[in-house]
Amino acid sequence: MSQTIKIDGVTVPFVEGQTIIQAAQDADIFIPHLCYHPDYSANGSCKMCTCRVNGRQMSSCTTKAAAGQVVESNTEEINSERRVLAQMLFVEGNHHCPSCEQSGNCVLQNMAHRLGMTALTFPNFYPGRPTDASHPDILLNRDRCIYCELCVRASRESDGKDVFCISGRSENKRLAINSRSGELLDSGLTRDDAAASVCPVGALIRKREGFATPIGEREFDRNPGQAVNIRAGTLPKLPRQPGQKIRVATCSLAGCFGCHMSLLDIDERLVDLVQVVEFDRTPLDDIKDFTQDCDIGLIEGGVCNTENVETLRKFRKHCKVLIAVGACAINGGVPSLRNGIDVRELLETSYVDGLGVDNPGIPTDPELPYILENVSPIHEVVKVDYFLPGCPPPADAFWHILSNIAQDEQPDLPYDLMHFD
Ligand code: SF4
Ligand code: SF4
Known about the structure:
Layout: E1 3-7, E2 10-14, H1 20-26, E3 50-53, E4 56-59, E5 70-72, H2 76-92, H3 107-114, E6 131-132, E7 138-141, H4 150-159, E8 164-167, E9 174-177, E10 204-206, H5 219-222, E11 246-252, H6 258-264, H7 269-276, E12 277-279, E13 294-300, E14 303-305, H8 306-318, E15 319-325, H9 326-331, H10 343-353, E16 371-376, E17 386-388, H11 395-406
Parallel strand pairs: 1-5, 11-12, 11-13, 13-15, 15-17
Antiparallel strand pairs: 1-2, 3-4, 3-5, 6-7, 7-10, 8-9, 14-16
């Protein structure tokens, strides 16, 4: 008779020597993980698969199943700790999904998605680790590396090459290459090596294969999650007389207006929306001042200059509920790709020595706002009540959240309306 454990109340058989995560996978029970891979030795470094085993927190990829164990995995307490881990990985690297080839097929992105991580509550590090593009077939973007060591293990255990290792500690930690030059070019790594395709994120990728995984086979499709709750706090009651409409204002900082375009993609449902909602300030009318306070403020874009800071503070003051809309507002997005580059160097490249520059000279008009050293997400400047992720969020997501609020409901975002790209 086979031995069993219980995972979240389900009886799961195991064979001697199996770990908890292996027994769970054989029983089609998903335990979130990043550094675990069934083909390689477990190293238990990411801690994402941590469960309560007989009441104690243990990594399920390194803990052997033992008869009678009671394992808790899918609980709010454990998932909220996993959300924190996912956030720490996002802020520690540069995870701008809209500009990443791995988007849609990324284990970290999918984990954050499944766990309902809508925003980053820690300051972003914006590291500037060296990218290695020396190899003709393989690219290493160290700013996306999550130190899962899967490439280290695959190179050693499958390819027999030992191409990778981890060097340094803390913020100086780096994925290092065992080669004379320290670059991939002379490392002996080849396109067909297991290590070249094992990376769960967009750090180590094969060139010319971006977005090649067919829809239906991506990480996102293989491990779908549940509806998530996008609440950042409790929705305050919006006091209204019967029949009184909700006042909505929108605003744009350093972004591309794509989020606003997506809002307009609600199309004919806008006609329904204006039955319950009236718009105050939008970039379409370009009104810079408020005529009166608003119930809901939707704001897109990151904070990149002194004018953005002033606009954002004023907007926050006049909006009872502030919703950060889109990747740029939530983590700086594509505009923050400049973070880590000296501002003067940026200006000189753009206005003096850059390709195609005519009449070189950095603009000095006193009306121009000062550029900040970094582009920041808006929650680093003001309090944000809700986060609506996406680049841009789909029109249906706007529709969903505004309809919820108009009906005095706490907004919940269905799983398929939430994404990071
Ligand atoms: S898709 Fe790319 S940017 Fe987004 S989490 Fe994955 S590795 Fe990071
Ligand atoms: S490059 Fe990829 S596989 Fe290697 S340690 Fe970093 S995240 Fe893991």
